[in-house]
Write a structure and sequence with these properties.
Layout lengths: L1 E5 L14 H8 L4 E5 L6 H13 L4 E4 L8 E4 L4 H10 L3 H9 L4 E4 L1 H4 L28 E4 L15 H11 L4 E4 L3 E6 L2 E6 L3 E4 L6 E3 L8
Parallel strand pairs: 1-5, 2-3, 2-4, 4-5, 6-7
Antiparallel strand pairs: 1-8, 7-10, 8-9, 10-11
Length: 222
């Protein structure tokens, strides 16, 4: 499998998909026809039009997920993860996408699209605005991802849970590591090797262990 899992399409100081564009180009190579999944947004047509215009600047053609057989890659965009996963279940697409990617179709995900590459969507940041039939996601990787990961701000007067505390709560009830993927970072999976791309480190959480930092270019071990 070949995966490029982006923390966020929008990065401070950059336009939409500007920051990950070099990595996307390198990842896609000669592939030009990309099936886009807009289901994390409410207005599928507007979202698709936005992505079509942006990817056209990369000489890429955006086609419908209903035309998956013609696709040379698939891109699952960000938005609300609950809505995304529910729609994939409702349209009976989850198993189809999983099979195609496992057979070699390159997969790009951003934010919610990155979350659902994991075994479950349980480490999303989103509100449950709809209810999917299951939290089980694509399972293309064997660890969880928390995109848009935020470090605790020691100057903040906010007394709610930090992102790290929420991930530790997840690990109290679930096995398997969680990667806190900061904005401006990506995970690339090729030939079973997972590598952190970007300028920032990632936060790696394992049950019963202290969290650790993973540097860019380093293989993330389960």
């Amino acid at each position: 499998m070949r995966l490029l899992l982006i923390s966020s399409s929008n990065v401070h100081g950059y336009g939409y998909l500007d920051h990950p564009e070099p990595s996307m180009r390198a990842f896609l190579g000669d592939a030009r026809r990309v099936a886009f999944v807009p289901f994390a947004a409410h207005d599928h047509d507007a979202y698709t039009a936005k992505v079509r215009e942006r990817l056209a600047r990369m000489e890429l053609e955006v086609i419908s997920i209903d035309d998956l057989d013609r696709a040379e890659a698939i891109f699952v965009g960000g938005g609300n993860t609950f809505r995304l996963l529910k729609t994939l279940y409702d349209r009976d697409l989850l198993a189809t996408i999983r099979a195609r990617v496992r057979a070699g179709l390159p997969y790009l995900g951003s934010s919610a699209g990155t979350v659902i590459a994991a075994p479950t969507m349980q480490t999303t940041n989103d509100m449950p605005i709809v209810e999917p039939p299951s939290f089980t996601a694509l399972g293309l990787i064997d660890f969880q991802v928390n995109p848009h990961y935020l470090d605790p701000d020691p100057q903040s007067t906010h007394r709610g849970e930090t992102r790290e505390e929420r991930i530790r709560e997840y690990l109290e009830e679930n096995e398997g590591p969680v990667v806190g993927l900061r904005e401006g970072s990506m995970l690339q999976v090729e030939n079973g090797v997972t590598t952190l791309l970007g300028e920032k480190t990632a936060r790696l959480f394992r049950r019963g262990e202290e969290a650790s930092e993973v540097k860019p270019g380093v293989f993330i071990r389960r």
